[in-house]
Amino acid sequence: MNDRTEILAAQRNDDSFATLWEELEWRGLIHVSTDAEALSELLEGEPFTYYCGFDPTAPSLHLGNLVQLLLLRRIQLKGHKPLGLVGGSTGLIGDPRPTAERTLNSRETVAEWVARLQRQVSRFLSGEGDNAVRLVNNLDWTAPLSAIDFLREVGKHFRVGTMLKKDAVAARLNSEEGISYTEFSYQVLQGFDFLELFRQYDCVLQSGGSDQWGNLTSGTDLIRKVEGRSAHAIGTPLITNSDGSKFGKSEGNAIWLDPEMCSPYAFYQFWLNQADADVIARLKVFTFLARAEIEDYARQVAEEPFKRAAQKRLALEVTTLVHGPAAAQGAIDASEALFGRGDLAALDEAALAAAITELPSATGTAGSPIVQLMVEAGLVKSLGEARRAIAQGGVYVNNAAVDAEDRALAGEDLLHGRYAVLRRGKKTLAGIRA
Question: What digits encode the pLDDT tens for the residues 68-88?
């Protein structure tokens, strides 16, 4: 059994809840939906097919997508049948952003990203058993359609007045940018996806972010008009921080699930640095910890916040989920070692390099004066300040105290022949690259 299989096998819904719907509400995963009572009954009934779509507008999924993947997994654990749709056609269009038109990517780029996202989706859902995940690509049913057929068979069921009321469309219409017909038509394409999956797989539920609600209901409306049947939709809340800021952004960049775009160390640190006011909500959404355990962490946050036990558990759980146990342990080891609680020399080169990438840095070689490197790395503002810090015993190279103001970087200080870590005091760090 490999790591991914073990992770999936260990996941459980919490049987302290009477229904899955009750658990989803407690975890804060339901912001808006079609008939809640009917959905609760559906989830407790016979296996049915459901889906979520992911557009290849980047080469990796991100934390917003992880919310959807975990919702899909929780429903799969109930015995239902997930479809993971990666939008080979909608990715060529792009859903309307509230502010500006998307840049259209080439067909070759979109095809490459489809393959990457399909691999990512498949890692979070079980491929075993009667309800194994199935991956679908909406290019398979849109590419064969001519524009005339699409307009006659699908477009005629949409009313422009209703389409104009969708939040993203309305926002763009009231902006200087306006909106192109290309992006305006996105909701028609997404509605057609739901109809096609309903026809092919008897798919009766779609999930997505609440900001996609207009697109989600375009599908339920289309199924009702064309097939005379009911279908359902769930909109998850947009995850924000307690101060109202957007969650999952780090200095303007998304927290990606691909380790090449966001290292396991940086990923771990992101979760470790969650605020006390946010961490319990994150445990509910992003982990499979049971209610009783999460409530105990809530108590610990209230009574012993300085221990940051909830943040440590959150960082461990989500990093293990996304990157595996070895990468999670490597991130923990690197974090401990950087702050003097572990052996930097014992870290493998990849873990050390990833950690140093997240620090202010300077370039140095054997013979470079430590005081000069401190200034260049931003640990101090002047050489005089650097000398005073050394004299006070508060400067370290690779966690070893610097005991002389004229100390220079030595060859043996360069871990893996390339890296060193400077530390001032307990928490102020910088990386040195040869």
Answer: 999 999 999 999 999 999 999
Query: pLDDT tens-digit profile of 271-315?
Result: 999 999 999 999 999 999 999 999 999 999 999 999 999 999 999
User: Does pLDDT of 249 surpass 80?
Assistant: no
User: What tokens appear for 392 in the block?
Assistant: 């006070």
| Residue 49 φ then ψ, to 5° | -100, 140
Q: What angle do CA 6, 11, 16 make, to 5 degrees?
A: 155
Q: Which helix or strand (DSSP H or E) is residue 235 part of?
A: strand 232-236
In the chain the domains, ranked by start, together with CATH numbers, are 3-238 (3.40.50.620), 240-355 (1.10.240.10), 359-434 (3.10.290.10)
Q: Which residues of 337-359 are buried (b: 16+ CB within 10 A; e: fewer)?
A: bbeeebebeebeebbbbbbbebb
Closest by CA position to 395, among listed 415, 369, 358: 369
Chain-centre distance for alpha carbon 430: 27
Q: Which tokens hold the place of 265? A: 């160390």
